[in-house]
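Bumping with the actual sequence this time:
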Amino acid sequence: MKTIRSTRRATMPVALVVGALAVTGCAGGASPGTDEGDASDTLTVWFPGSSQPEIELVTETLVPQFEEETGIDVEVTFVDWGDLAPKLNSAFAAGTAPDVFGHGPAAAADLAANDRVMSLDDFVAEMPQEEQADLSAALTGGQVDGTQYLMPLSISGQLIAYRADLLAEAGVDPEGIASWDDLYAAAEALTVREGDRITRAGVLLGTAAIQRSLTFNALISAAGGELMSADGSTSEFAGPEGVEALTYFTDLYNGEDAVADNLGNDYLNSAPAEQPLTTGAAAMTLLTSQAVSQIVAANPDLEIGVLPALEFSQPAAFGGAGAGLFINADTAAPDAAWDFIEFMTSSEISTAYAEGTGTIPIRASAADSEYVQSSPIVQAFLGQVENFVPNPNVVSWTQIRDVLDTYLEQALAGVATPQEALDGAAEQVAGIVG
């Protein structure tokens, strides 16, 4: 856990300064629907992760700018994702939880159910309608049962990226790949073998821990199915759509015409130089916009393309609202906390944040920004946002996800059929939600 004490007297590097913005409201103003102002003009804020570019952007540029504009002092702490939940739990128990903290949408339902976070509905309602419309694609990902709890800082998604040179050599036209079946056929043409060993995978999907469930979400959604009922009371993944999706997934790695190898390998988080697309160990891989952008930046001579969301019966890809900011339900400074969130999600700042982190901007208007216009990769991902399907925002989702992930691993390893694996997961999940 890295704490950075930032004050409004900090010096911002000239090259990184973002245009000054007028921040709506100020510390000490009244919260929507209340008559009392904040008790503090100092905020504690936790961000998840350990990305050095993000840490530098937030602490050296964005937070000092916010402090300068508002007079609110901010103490920023970055917490590794693996430590975030236990540290938050300990802080809540001790009454020392931060005023504002970052987390992923998967945590929203449990945080709301345990009264850990404040509803943001009144704050959002006071935003101009054009602002709400500009943020609409991101806002829904931060809602639980229609109530806004999370304000996302980015949109994330996973699409198939490909090596244009390898597809050309194999005579594969990427514009002819519109479905998952098309992808399989292309992967067969692209796979290289030495005997029974695959030396170049035609395609790789995420099969490491947790990644399996994200890949499965994309596949079942493309088949017209879903993981959970809307109210989170029952699992839906063991039906025909789930079996179709998981059968496809397992066949890629274990079928008679397998086109993928290195089952369980966490290539998604590999450095650009070690990515299978970079090394030529795979012709196509499922990747985030951040990963593809990093590969392109590190290897400008490689021509990397991105496929649109693929379908069985409808186009779908895993994605949606990325990590964002919650307000602690017990904060003494709700107005200052909202001022900070409103600043971070404002037009110029949110685009600067997306550019600094390599993510998809949360605002539709960012499509016209230099960041998006200068990057065909970001444009490709931004153009597919309407087809992104997030994980369910339901209570106990992370526990449900971990159960499903374990059974998906069994199917991929060939120790259970797709139907057996999904039935086993559904039976265990019933004990969680029942």
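The tokens above came from a reply further down the thread. The chain has two domains: 2-154+322-362, 157-319+392-433.
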